[in-house]
Amino acid sequence: MSSGYRRARIVPVVSPHPAEPAGAGRWRLGALILLVVATVSLVGVVGPTRATPRVGGPAPAFTAIDSHGNQVSLSDYAGRTVVLEWTNHDCPFVAKHYGTGNMQAIQRDAVAAGVVWLSVISSAPGTQGHLSPAEANALTMDRAAAPTKVLFDPSGTVGRAYGARVTPHMYIIDPGGTLVYMGGIDDRPTARWRDVDGATNYVRQALDELAAGVPISAPVTRAYGCTVKYAS
Amino acid sequence: MTYRRSALPVSADPRALARAARRHVLGAVAATAAALFTAGPAGANPVSTDTVTAELVPVIAAVTPGEPVPLVLRLDVRAGWHVYWRNPGDSGLPPTVAWTLPGGVAAGPLRFPTPERFPVGPLVNYGYGGEVLFPTTLATSPALTGRGSLPIEAAVDWLVCADICIPESATLGLALPVGSAASDAARPDLGDRAAAALPVVVDWPARGSAIARTVRLEVDLPVGFRSDAVPSGYFPFEDGMIDHAAPQRITRSGDRLTIETTPGYRLQTTDAALDLDGLIVFADPDRGSAARSGYQIAVAIADDPPSTPAGAAAGTGGHADPAAGGDDRAVVAVGLGAAGAPTPAAELSVSVAIGFAVLGGLLLNLMPCVFPVLMLKALGALDTARVAPARARAHGLAYGAGVLATFGALAGVLVTLIAAGAQIGWGFQLQSPLVVAGLAYLFLVVGLNLSGMFAVGTGVMGLGGGVRDDGSSLVGSAATGALAVVVATPCTAPFMGAAVGYALGQPPATGVAVFLALGVGMASPFVLLSFAPAVARRLPRPGPWMERLRQVMAFPMYATAVWLVWVLGRQSGADVVAAVLSGAVVLGFGLWVFGATRAGGPAWRLVGGAVALAALVGAGVIAHGATASDRAAATAAADPPANARQGDGPWQLYSPAALEAARRAGTPVFVNFTAAWCITCLVNEQVALSTAAVDRRFDEAGVVRLKGDWTRRDPEITAALARFGRSGVPFYVLYPPGAAPVVLPQLLTEDSVLAALADL
Questions:
Q1: Is domain B41-194 given the CATH code 2.40.50.140 in the classification?
Q2: B513 neighbourhood in chain A, CB within 8 Å
Q3: What is the pLDDT of residues A56-73, one digit of tens each?
Q4: What pTM was computed for the model?
Q5: B201-308 CATH, one of 3.90.1420, 3.40.50, 2.40.160, 2.60.40
Q6: Which residues, numbered 173 to 232 in chain A, qualify as contacts with chain B under a Cβ-Cβ cut-off of 8 Å?
Q7: Cα–Cα distance, B392 to B132 (Å, whole number)
Q8: ipTM
Q9: What is d(CA B265, CA B279) in angstroms, rounded to the nearest whole number?
């Protein structure tokens, strides 16, 4: 994935009738209706290129291998609140939250409250953030992180199913398997460590609201960070 | 250039950190050295990292206290890396600046040039590679007078990414000299380049909606904008409105763009407001493979689902603002004229344009410069119809053919000139003093003919001849048709502005079709009359009264000639007027000789004809000579006569810069595009724009009044009209502060102007 100077992936559809005399009105009408029908059916059948789960809808099911070599499925945690954290330890935005201890603190508090915390690495082999199981466990130890599990998603299947775009990208699934939060970790989209203090932490806020049984005040927020290093 | 490193990349990438550490040591050494020799502001400038060179560049050499100070933040990004637009797309961050400024100086926002798309795997970012220029402006207080120099410090943060990302920062320092002292660091060229890369703020009507799994945007481009080019992409300002990586289906039908794409994550929640303001970007392959032009649009959000494309194409009416409640970003609101609606050309479809053209042509028959000619011709024809209906029909058709042929020729000339790149529009004929002089002569000759000073049997001058002649000359009827078109051109009827504007922006065949439709409209009453002998029977029988009527009709002709000479005076000044009037005397003498010798023998008649011809040629030479020297003078001075261009009372001279300045100052602006040869314009100015009530309202609301005088050719005004899809005057537009401009009808009343000003 080198520099992205490729031309934009845009499909220009040139009007078949740029300008025609009035008599052709009927034809144009027909052509436009055809175009609309074609467009609608195309969207309806093929669907968007990338799944975007809906907040309020069911969280996409997945199965992945964790850093200890065990198979982990979302369904294993039915009846519990699950947090998904997309991560890449070399990303400066991830580093902001681990370097300041912010991420570890939320993990500890959440896990202590009975929440399942899954850190997901979708970096493809050879890209930034890709780790072997041993390296991942060492990293967790080194930085005193407290996730329930660290999951590997080198093919990007899980990441794409959730529409994860950046690291850190955060998702919360309620005990009923419904996606209740997706977005950023907080409201300060910077890589400056000093911005952690005083930021509104959306994940903490949503977990608290979920536990208290009140509606989540910010269920969809802007995720900021480095792009997930997906396999092309 | 000092090299002082004050940027410390904050990165957890071990390689980046190692590089940073190396650089930091070097930088510290360099900084110490620099501090020993310079006593500048705190930050160095420029600052280089491995991937980016950042520099804060002054555009002007010195600060004039009270005046804005343009600066450019220049980031030169290493190949393969990119920095980000204001909406970075799926990831990334735009550059930010924290300023440290002396008192009396305030910084404006960083402005972002037109971005490009950077696909990264399944994701898309918006940003820039290579050299990118972010202009900004410092406001300064007049109280700074006397200061030696102003220390400016900018702490710049940016994120630079390839497949990995590095957040970097630099503190850039600059000392701006005040007053006459000049800095050699100023780079006006950089300011120009930075400005050229910015998107153009446009007021194209745009409507947006999000239904089910489609975000849909409809944009009405100005007529013929970039002919049939389809934009390369749409870039929203707000994150989460569209799925950045999803394909954008962009179609263009005439001048209506439709963009459809997948909604972004924020539209999942019901309380997220749809905000589709952003850029429409066209590729400019002529200027290089990466060249692009951005146009910034404000999008009105529809409450209701938007019309289907088919329905929208058929819709013609001035789209009222379909904006959601409280959304005041109106699409260009188009005032409706009393007589119907001069529809914005941008909204016209081909069939509607042709319909308007036919209507406009019909109205032309009522114009004061056309009506007398037509009425006399009509009476003559009706007289013929009583005795020989077939001949009357033949005359009617000949007249119609003359009208159509002339409109066709006119369209051909216009289309050819435009294809050749000329900046002209409707009424262009009258921007040439020579044409105006020729028309003045023509009206004089017609008037003298009607007065009975001379008579000719056939030909162009055989006006009204049908009354006395046996009406045998079909050529005469065709010539009358041609003449009617020529004399009608100054009288751009209200409906014609939009139709002609549309025609000129279309492919040549469509343009010619619209012009021919004008001709059909103009010719039809007379042609129909010639086919309806029943009407003829109801008219009074011919008699001496027709001769009297003929003579009376001469006076509107003289009046028209006077008006044309006045236009000429506005264009070229008193000397040219004197010369052209002298030519008129010569012409009058020649025609008198011609008329007086008609009754004589063949020799006399020959002499009379020769004298008349000589007079005609002489008058032409005089007019040509006078206007030619004037043209040369105007070209040499590059400055039209003062009386044509001066401001007029509360009206200031229009220029794009004046408009821009007033809008930037937040004052409402009213622009009156007019021309001395445009009767509708003059009438509007008299009855609606300069009345006491309107004057008072203008003053109360603090409206800056600008007058764009199009009496002579003016490419800036032609371009301004073209932005609204017009190619002729009158044209009135009100710019309320902070809102989209409002186009007023071509026929103004005091009430309609006051209504437009009421909201200010």
A1: no
A2: 21
A3: 888 999 999 999 999 999
A4: 0.49
A5: 2.60.40
A6: 182-183, 189-193, 219-220, 222, 224-232
A7: 73
A8: 0.70
A9: 20
